[in-house]
Specification:
188 residues, alpha+beta, two-stranded antiparallel ribbon, 6 strands
């Protein structure tokens, strides 16, 4: 009988912990530990476009999607940044792909609807320094993938797949792969 009483009690105690699991929780960190030569931090997620312009702010702030995207950005950039260089990135805005359309009915108020008019967007402040400490590149970068639905992979179920692909494409443009030395026997 005690076990039957404890299960609902434990479930009730777990609710506040779940409710605090939002990207706007002020006790959450606003940066990742530096990984190699790339550091990533972000401004207040409560001011990100994804929450400010959401039709379901409560649903939009759930989870740890800011940290997940920051970690993906860090790993992607660290894999391509030339040795000796340092990269500092501050995420200043995120608008995830899709929007909530609660006017479609109660069954859809928690569903992020993907349409061409709701592309993913991210704004970053980037600073890259060389081994000598000199600034190699610096400035604001505005990422957007206007054709995100045309290149969608139907088997990919990652909720952040469109944003991650957009970040990967930007990293490839920002940090081109080092040119490979042509072996003496390979030259024309």
């Amino acid at each position: 009988m005690r076990l039957l009483f404890l299960v609902p009690l434990l479930a009730a105690l777990a609710l506040p912990a779940q409710a605090a699991s939002t990207v706007t929780d002020p006790s959450r960190p606003r940066s990742l530990p530096p990984e190699g030569n790339v550091s990533v931090d972000w401004t207040d997620p409560g001011q990100f476009s994804d929450l400010r312009f959401s039709n379901n702010r409560w649903e939009a702030q759930q989870g740890d999607w800011v940290t997940t995207l920051a970690r993906h950005l860090q790993e992607s950039a660290a894999a391509r940044l030339p040795a000796g260089q340092q990269m500092t990135i501050t995420i200043t805005d995120i608008m995830r792909a899709g929007r909530y359309e609660p006017w479609m009915g109660m069954n859809y108020d928690h569903v992020r609807v993907m349409r061409d008019v709701y592309p993913p967007r991210v704004t970053l402040n980037v600073r890259i320094t060389g081994a000598d400490g000199q600034v190699v590149a610096e400035g604001e970068r505005k990422l957007a993938d206007m054709g995100y639905l045309q290149s969608a992979m139907p088997t990919d179920t990652d909720n952040l797949r469109f944003e991650k692909r957009m970040i990967d494409n930007w990293v490839r443009r920002e940090l081109p792969a080092p040119s490979r030395a042509v072996a003496s026997g390979d030259a024309d």
